[in-house]
Amino acid sequence: MKILFVCSGNSAFGISPITKNQGDSINNSDVVVSYFPIIGKGLFNYLKNIFLLKKHVSINKYDIIHAHYSSSAFVAALANTKPLVVSLMGSDVQGNYLSKLVIKFFYKLSWNKIIVKSNRMHNCLGFKDISVVPNGVNLNVFYSMDKRECQKQLGWDYDKKHILFAANPSRPEKNFRLAKQAFSILNNGNIVLHFLNNVSPERMPLWINSADVVMLVSLWEGSPNVIKEAMACNRPIVSTDVGDVSWLLDGMDGCHITSFDPENIAKSLKLSLRFSENKGLTQGREKIIELGLDSKTTAKRIISLYKLVLGFSKKKMSKTKN
Fold first, then answer.
1. Listed range (95-109, 220-234, 263-277) with the worst mean pLDDT
2. How many helices (H) and strands (E) does the chain have?
3. Nearest to residue 146, comparing CAs of 32, 281, 261, 277?
4. What is d(CA 260, CA 92) in angstroms, rounded to the nearest whole number?
5. Most confident among 37-46, 146-155, 181-190 (mean pLDDT)
6. Entry pTM
7. Coil, strand, or helix at residue 163?
């Protein structure tokens, strides 16, 4: 089976690590994943890629076109690529009424299957034929490492406690301002707040394992990968109730779901820091395995959806010929 991922190529590392990781997990002896990265931001660059994608698909035959994020899916639809599977990631579903209307139009026009990352996204769209498949985490990459050794590699002070704001603070939806407000309430010179800014995918396990607590206070999410990665590393976590985080962390000691009140976040951070000091590790990795959110299991689910879409497409073509 030949699969083409249509996706943005504009992240600091080219293709988004989330998209690339999913492609890597699907690649095997029976499935070959190729990429069509959309280079350049803004309406003009995306429109320019419609013709380029159409030409590429006419030369290179694929069984499934899989577009990631709505903007890439619009390009794939306008290029008349079929059969078309679309993964919506979170921010594209959380938009205004008009953006949802556009998504609904393209869904009815030519999208064969929509994949979303959480039940909350599913309910937000309200369409019938939607599959909920969160991105999986590679357990061979993300696992618990010696915290002090990781801190040594990053040059972090052993004698201090470290909170990792698990996002790039320049992204408004990640709500770094709230994180800083909560951190200031802690009022403790022995605690350091770190954040992610152009950290390479290869070094992410090092950053997560260096943290006493991983914090996410986003306004919205789909199914945040960094939370699942932190779970796989057995790190204590504090997060707002976004995406599927409450489901992921349900019943886990050392982890807390908070409101958007900085006082509440600061209180939860104190509890998780205390847990980190006294017990160290959570049972997050076991929970990831229990929920079937390792990358191998989610890859099987996606491949099954591909086969389902191909089956429907063949039946439709057969009916058209008859």
1. 95-109
2. 13, 11
3. 281
4. 22
5. 146-155
6. 0.89
7. strand
Q: What is the mean pLDDT of residues 300-311?
A: 93
What would the 3-class secondary structure string for 44-108 be?
A: HHHHHHHHHHHHHHHHCCCCEEEEECHHHHHHHHHCCCCCEEEECCCCCCCCCHHHHHHHHHHHH
Token pair recorded at residue 81: 């690529």
Query: Cβ distance 62 to 44 under 8 Å?
Result: no
Q: Which two tokens stand for residue 97?
A: 């009424």
Task: Give every CB contact of residue 179 below 8 A, 6+ residues apart in sequence.
Answer: 165, 169, 193, 195, 215, 217, 265
Residue 151 makes CB contacts below 8 A (sequence gap 6+) with 157, 158, 162, 210
Query: What residues form DSSP beta bridges with 64?
Result: 3
What letter does residue 240 receive in the DSSP assignment?
A: E
**CA nearest neighbour of 59 among 73, 29, 79:** 79
CA distances from 159 to 46, 111, 191, 203, 209 (A): 49, 54, 9, 22, 16
